[in-house]
Amino acid sequence: MFAMVFLIAVFSVSASAKLWDRTSFRRTLQDLQLPSILVNLGVFAVPAGEWLFALLLLPNKTRMAGLAGLGVMLLIFSCAAWRASRLRQQISCNCFGNLVPETFGWHTAVKIVLLGIAVAYAIGRPMASVHLWEMPLLELAAAGLISFALLLMYALWLVMKEKQV
């Protein structure tokens, strides 16, 4: 269950941050030298997809579709990271919108792999008959708080890393 709550937290924070600062996210897509039609589509489609697939994890009947969608999103993010490495430029990642200073690099690949592991784990251990909201409240709250604590620690690490440069 923790993997599911963690994925919901990560992708909903990511989607919200991208929607909050669409200008910054648009700049990232432009810096990746994508065609303007993909930039215009991506500014809304990427965060909408993140929100949609995170929400699909809630009901048991749509959970596998949500996990598959998140897997596709991770493939798209992998393509973006690959593209940034091919351009050999410092491109702002905007993985979590403009909440934290972050450029594409090795840590982007590590983040994608870790999220991929969480998706694969959730697929391999399906909670087919259990709704998340039917889980014990204390367990659900703990998973949510730990998920947001991990996100906060990651953000703080990025800020501290940025200040050292």
Automatic annotation (TrEMBL):
GO terms for biological process: methylamine metabolic process. This is Methylamine utilisation protein MauE domain-containing protein. The chain crosses the membrane at residues 37-58, 65-84, 104-124, 136-160. It is a multi-pass membrane protein. InterPro entries: Methylamine_util_MauE (IPR009908). GO terms for cellular component: membrane. Keywords: Membrane, Transmembrane, Transmembrane helix. The keyword Cytoplasm does not apply. Coiled coil: none annotated. It is found in: Membrane. Residues 4-122 form the Methylamine utilisation protein MauE domain. It holds the Pfam family MauE.
